[in-house]
Protein: Peptidase M16
Organism: Polaribacter reichenbachii
Amino acid sequence: MKKSILSFTALVLFVFTTNAQKVEFEEYDLSNGMHVILHQDNSAPVAFIATYYHVGAKDEQPDRTGMAHFFEHLLFEGTKNIKRGEWDKIVSSAGGNGNATTDDDRTYYYEQFPSNEVATGLWLESERLLHPVIEQVGVDTQNEVVKEEKRLRVDNQPYGKFLENVKKNIFKKHPYKGTTIGKMEHLDAATLEEFKAFNKKFYVPNNGTLVVAGDIDKAEVKKMIQDYFGSIPRGAEIERNFPKEDPITETIKAKAYDANISIPAIMAAYRTPAMTTKDSRVLDMISSYFSTGRSSVLYKKLVDTKKMALQTGAINFSQEDYGTYILFGLPQGETSLDDLLEGIDEEIVKLQTNLISENDYQKLQNQFENRFVNSNSTVQGIAGSLAEYYVMFGDTNLINTEIDIFRSISREDIREVAKKYLNPNQRLVLEYLPESQKK
């Protein structure tokens, strides 16, 4: 009966996704090199305007970390035509909302407006690019904002530094060894001229992608884009030549301490290929197999059945140049970190040795079909995907076709990728401990 239910669910999802509306888009380049992607959907009177800059923490100088994230804040300070403190007021008075995010590879700014305010959004984003005011008062103000964010989200957050400690141990050469938020002493030491130089280098039209999606008239929007962005000068071409990591050939053992925790954690992390590879997608599936939901392998075994762990899971942290695959667990009762790692390793070995069941395989396919449908269910989701697929993957149409890559993944692929990457001699084992255990 269970197999029949799974088969029926798979059939429904297959029919739904096969007949789901294709995401239509148009893309082109302005003469200054800015890439433009338009998606028209007149089903609701909203429009989404986003600019996606190919600059992240990996682009910073080693002694000036945190610059990219700092600019996520700094470029809301104002422009020659927008006074300090007025940006958010302009957005809200037009019935909109917006924000920005930064990671190691990119910075993403976005606003959503009623569709009759598209011009406002385009003007704001062109002002950010053409007329930013970078002055000491803004730098000082945002320096305090960033410090408070670091205190809240990293320094005082339980397990807030686990990824930081994984990255600095698993990457020795590539700038992924740092953190997105950076070191505060580096920002304190940066001069105003250095902030201006960073802006001049990376915030140029040929390093940006503009997406306008929703209830728009494409002909009108094209004219507005040309009017607002067409005259912005092209910047110098950006060259990237990051050092390559040597393969990990023996287990790296490390410890980290956190004053905000009382329960230790064990983490096993593996350096894996870039997000653009099929193997990275297979690792996405392996993560779901191990840790999505209460019926997942690690939860059922270590939390539910054996009561060895309070929590356990798997994360495929995929990025533009490399990925980091992390398995983790928090022990319960008298369970040691070594015993918990052994329990996790047993499931890895099973995955490397045997094919997963047909039922588990179909469950994974169902999960990824569902994710695909949900990712294209809102204008905001579509806009973000269009930008990311173009900048990070070099293929905007993956918004329609990436699901075919997941569909092509076989049970044999899952076994072989586990055998290729998830081996003890290719990993970091990190004990993440309460500060009280530090000797």
